[in-house]
Amino acid sequence: MKIHIISIFPESFDSYFSSSIIKRAIEDNFFEAVFYKLNDFSVVPTGRVDDKAYGMHGQVLSPEPLSKAIENIFFRVWKKIKVVYMSPSWDLLTQEKTEYYIENLGEEFIIICGHYEGIDQRIIDIYVDYKVSIWEYILTSWELASMIFIDSLVRQIPGVLWNKQSYLEESFSLKLNRQKEYPVYTKPQEFMWKKVPDILISGNHKEIEKWKQTNLS
User: Which of the 8 DSSP states describes residue 129?
Assistant: First the structure.
């Protein structure tokens, strides 16, 4: 999977992409992120990429630099690819939708990280294929929202998680009927007078599966 990320602050991804599962996915060539600083596509000498919104308060990312950035990516890859816009006001992300995006975005796509009051509507109308929200609240950094979206996608790439069951049987997965996962335990068997349920250490896999199903929430 290769993701082209358009952002005013691409450096904000450095810490997250250099740790844990995402870092291993990059090192093992399961995932590649290519960053484009939006200011590099500014149409004014100052490098500014926003302007005052018509008919409202606040600043909006201008259409010219965004269009230049998107067209530059199309030119680099020699084709048009899907464009995702991270927004607080559109399609709420769920596990089921994440699985849909994995199937439909393709191996290479673009993510636009908005800022201020968002991006000019004409960019959405002309270029954007999917508008994704991580929930019904506002963030200062839309880069953070895109990290959450990327994480939800990358962990589903075969081979990224060492144990395939880790994503096949987890909260909101199809196998668990989109319900929250059952309680989980590890050693020691007793902790502060609370014990692991006997069934989980019984070795009876059939009964363990029944216990899991009856303890979904």
Answer: S
Residue 141 CA to residue 179 CA, distance in Å, equals 30
Round to whole Å and give the CA distance between 158 and 25. 10
Alpha helical stretches, state H, 6-105? 14-17, 20-27, 63-77, 95-104
Q: Over the stretch 121-141, which tens digit does the pLDDT of each residue have?
A: 999 999 999 999 998 877 877
pTM check: above 0.90: no
Name all domains of the chain by residue range, CATH numbers in brackets. 2-154 (3.40.1280.10), 165-214 (1.10.1270.20)
Quick: pLDDT tens for 10-52: 999 999 999 999 999 999 999 999 999 999 999 999 999 999 9
Sign of CA dihedral 39, 42, 46, 51: negative
Handedness of CA 14, 20, 25, 28 (dihedral sign): positive
Q: What is the DSSP letter of 36?
A: E
Going from the C-alpha of 216 to that of each of 95, 167, 183, 187, 194, the distances in angstroms are: 16, 16, 8, 22, 20
